[in-house]
Amino acid sequence: MRKTANILAATAAFAALSSCADGGAVARGDFSPTYQGIETILLDGELVNFRVAMTGARGNTDVESYGRCAAAQYALIRGFGFARHVRTTVAQNGNLWRGDAVYVISASLPRGLKTIDAEVAVRDCGELGIPTV
Q1: Residue 24 φ then ψ, to 5°
Q2: What's the CA gap between 50 and 109, in Å, rounded?
Q3: CA dihedral in degrees (124, 133, 55, 51; nearest 10)?
Q4: Which of 5, 45, 48, 62 is the most exposed place for a label (fewest CB within 10 A)?
Q5: Within-domain flag for 12
Q6: Strands of the sheet with 115-117, listed across from one edge
Q7: Do the beta carbons of residue 74 and residue 102 sit within 8 Å?
Q8: What is the CATH number of the domain that holds 121?
Q9: Domain count, the chain
Q10: Range(s) of the domain holding residue 25
């Protein structure tokens, strides 16, 4: 039940974002982000730091979603199926938004409330036009 609830919560968060055809910029009303890249830093074994940058974000949630997408794809690349969110900080300077997120990646569903099923998240990110690693 917890896994289903976490997946539904992650899906709902992604659903708040818009999709696009070109993968770089999303346009919907006044929301037209440009995703400017992901930096991945392996901190220790399964602990990974993701630094993202974008313009046109509506707020912290858009930046956090970009980091979540990066973490989900990275987990799959490393052969893991799950990630657990540790923390995300967001900073804005003018129209430039930066996120600094830390996740633990794992083969089995980790303990905690902020878990991500990587396959589901990557699929949702693709549908929403949010780039991954």
Answers
A1: -105, -40
A2: 20
A3: 120
A4: 45
A5: yes
A6: 34-44, 47-55, 96-106, 82-93, 115-117
A7: no
A8: 3.30.1360
A9: 1
A10: 2-128
